Amino acid sequence: MRYELYYWPEIQGRGEFVRLALEDAGADYVDVARVEKTGIAAMVRVLENHSVKRPPFAPPFLKAGNLVIAQTANILFYLGPRLGLVPKGEAGRLWAHQLQLTIADWVAEVHDSHHPISGSLYYEDQKREAKRRAADFTRERVPKFLGYFEDVLKRNPKGSSYVLGKAISYVDLSLFQMNAGLRYAFPRTMTKLEPKHRRMVALHDRVCARPRLAAYLSSPRRLPFNQEGIFRHYPELDG
Amino acid sequence: MRYELYYWPEIQGRGEFVRLALEDAGADYVDVARVEKTGIAAMVRVLENHSVKRPPFAPPFLKAGNLVIAQTANILFYLGPRLGLVPKGEAGRLWAHQLQLTIADWVAEVHDSHHPISGSLYYEDQKREAKRRAADFTRERVPKFLGYFEDVLKRNPKGSSYVLGKAISYVDLSLFQMNAGLRYAFPRTMTKLEPKHRRMVALHDRVCARPRLAAYLSSPRRLPFNQEGIFRHYPELDG
Fold first, then answer.
1. Cα–Cα–Cα angle for B117, B173, B85, rounded to 5 degrees
2. Are A132 and B140 an interchain contact pair (Cβ–Cβ within 8 Å)?
3. How many alpha carbons lie under 13 Å from residue A3 in its C-beta half-sphere?
4. Which of A32, A57, A82 corresponds to the end of one domain?
5. Do the interacting molecules here have an ipTM over 0.95?
6. Is residue A56 within 8 angstroms of chain B, CB to CB?
């Protein structure tokens, strides 16, 4: 099965959580909107096609045979067992998904730290509000989420190397991305917090040492963090 | 199976999406935190119990036998087939879940329309920012979400009575709740928008005419909308 991923071609964004799973598994996939010249038009064609019976609200979405699946966590729920990136039983899959949904909430809060008023206004037009929101985000929310996942790692009865059992899952890949993104966006905050979240840091290092993922991260397929994505570095927002 | 739902006892909030499914299906359940005297303590005990292997990040969560499942959409994904509130096949379940996750995003935006800076500050302490955010929310986001679900109803190849096929699903119940909540919070905005979203209004009426749901809605089990929940009525935020 050749998967087709559709996502904005110039940012990591939410699509990156799916890319990391596909790359780590060595899956056969096309990052459709990044195909030169024709890519974005192909994505827009799906979004504007009124004969699609199950229209996505927004990218990312995945085409897998006849299926069109949207919502990042839903895509990972579907891909997980097919890529060997989640336990097979229902209880394990639900637990992985629950964690992924909590990551999705965290991602939305990262976005709103620089866009607390509207996604359709420039940062400069909501900078004053962003300063207030980011102050709360770095002081209250980042420690709360980091602490939660640190605790989840600690409680794993099979050891703290990964969040679920003994093997890596797509949730671990997503937590790597959260850690990397927060380091980019909020370096001062993370320098302060990382010593208290050693399992999360170790997980980050363990994930990016995986051969296929390391190859991906140093390839041109990995877009750099930038000021258009979800993780943005504005020094004035960094604690 | 007697389900145990755990959620804040004084608001509809996110727990209400689960309550509507349990009530419509006539399921056997306890709304644990609403049991007088002992309820909240029982919920806090689970949240603070360090021997829980799969800790929820926050309520709502559901106990189903040995399982503890959190995240509203994940709970509904689990309950859907057991309550007969979703198609049985994988494609239908994923599509229902994708829609539920889009509703979850919408719910988060409703919350942030009155709390754009921090969930731990009073409304009065972020009223100025709330006015800006709510102006964008009522002008851009509510029409976008309403229009999307109106279109989903329109595209259903089995007719526009429900979002999936010919039968009701938990997604329809959740859309009823969105419509009802938005009417409470933003009556002027909804009076303006409803004539353009007739399928959504018809769905609302169809859902609340269901005998079990009608009985629930007129019972004391249905908490009234209030100024502590996700849907709050501040006239100055209503378009």
1. 125
2. no
3. 25
4. A82
5. yes
6. yes
